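Reviewer 2 asked us to include a model.

Predict the structure of this chain.
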Amino acid sequence: MTRVVERPADLLGMVGTSMGPTGWITVEQNRVDGFADVTGDHQWIHVDVERAKAGPFGGTIAHGYLTMSMINLFLPELVEVRGFAHAVNVGLDRLRFLAPVKVGSRIRAVSEIVSAEEIKGAIQSVVRVTIEIEGSDKPALIADTISRYFPE
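Predicted model (structure tokens):
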């Protein structure tokens, strides 16, 4: 269930709040191939299904940066901040790829608000997002996302 935050200032009192999990999403080969086309990263471990069968993972795996980019897919299901004029994505801190995502596996996200502060006329929040792999003890990645919300 999505956590609704009525106004950015409410984030200040939410440090330590956990959110999620999201629903599961299956990582299909066509998503991996599309990412390869957009980024120019056609390494065989991602796109050559036949060759990858004999590779270290027994099949193709998603690009780490593809998995990272899916944070944007999951965030609206984790938290919805309302009551701002505009917001900006400041970036990521502490991004770590911990386990490969095999094509055909399912992933989802959980998160925690790790900080929130007033900064430069806005509220800046850091949300730690963990992308889990179904059936795995190790997550695919953990990253701290940084967002700035400018109140109305």
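The chain has one domain: 3-151. The radius of gyration is 17 Å. We have added this to the supplementary material.
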